[in-house]
Protein: Peptidase propeptide and YPEB domain
Amino acid sequence: MKFLKVLALTAAISTAAFGSTSALAAGNITAKQAASIAAKHVGGRTTDVDFERKRSGNYYEVEVKKANGQEYDVRIDAKTGKVLSVHLDDDDDDDWDD
Structure:
């Protein structure tokens, strides 16, 4: 009985380890890598990173703030690390103009 518990635990650990490395084997980048790419591309510091799943492909939505206070939303392809888009986030959270 103890042998079966050890065997089941080993199988569970192996499956978990395989699952976590399969994303890397598929060529996916990490959130940390996406943040670094976005910060370097815009020339600021990362304030937030979100992973988005879409039918067209997965990407990271990275918020980057420059020294002058401007904030940018940068989309990074989760598979290749390519910058997909950069948009100035000019939302001042002011509801007076909504």
Summary: Residues 2-25 form the longest helix (24 residues). Residues 3-25 have pLDDT under 50 and may be disordered.
